[in-house]
Amino acid sequence: RIESESVTLRFLVVPSDMDASGSTVQAGRVLEWIDKAGYACAVGWSASYCVTAYVGDVHFARPIAAGSLVEAHARIIHTGRTSMHVYVSIETADVRTRRFSPATHCVLVLVALDEAGDPRQVAHWQPWGDGDRTIQSRAESRIE
User: How far does CA 49 lie from the centroid of its chain?
Assistant: First the structure.
């Protein structure tokens, strides 16, 4: 695996992340974490500034509680000429046990830009095995 094809962000849920009831994290905050992880992954792959062009297939599997330890995992799953498809999963754990379980996942498409703000070519991502080929195939099917 190439180190720049993925990134993991880790942090704690804080009170300002919670919804008005205080019982769960705001969906908008989760989407913010997804965008940050996807951006960090795309910039690492392309070595350039990137913009989010698409966010889709968002699946909220369960609510996220206050005080949870959060990991936002992002990885390249497909590249076009100037775009990168990034799969992002959010996992959470009780800070004491550190046993993570999935909470949310989605796919982002980010476009690399040059200094003038024009789309620039990115390196081709190559699947490493059957699992990567399957996830790349799913990404390609979304293009159509």
Answer: 16
Average pLDDT across each block of 10 residues of the chain; the chain has 144 residues. List them in order. 85 95 94 97 97 94 95 96 97 96 96 97 90 80 69
Q: What is the pTM of this model?
A: 0.91
Token code pair at residue 135: 């996830």
Q: Structural domain of residue 92, as residue ranges?
A: 3-143
How many domains does the chain contain in total?
Answer: 1
CATH code, domain carrying 67:
3.10.129.10
**Neighbour count for residue 136 (Cβ, 10 Å):** 18
**Which pLDDT belongs to residue 75?**
96
Q: How far is CA 57 from CA 31, 114, 135, 138, in A?
A: 12, 28, 13, 11
Q: Which pLDDT does position 132 carry in this prediction? A: 80
**Conformation bin of residue 25: beta by default, left when phi > 0, alpha when psi is -120 to 50:** beta
7's enclosing H/E stretch is: strand 6-12
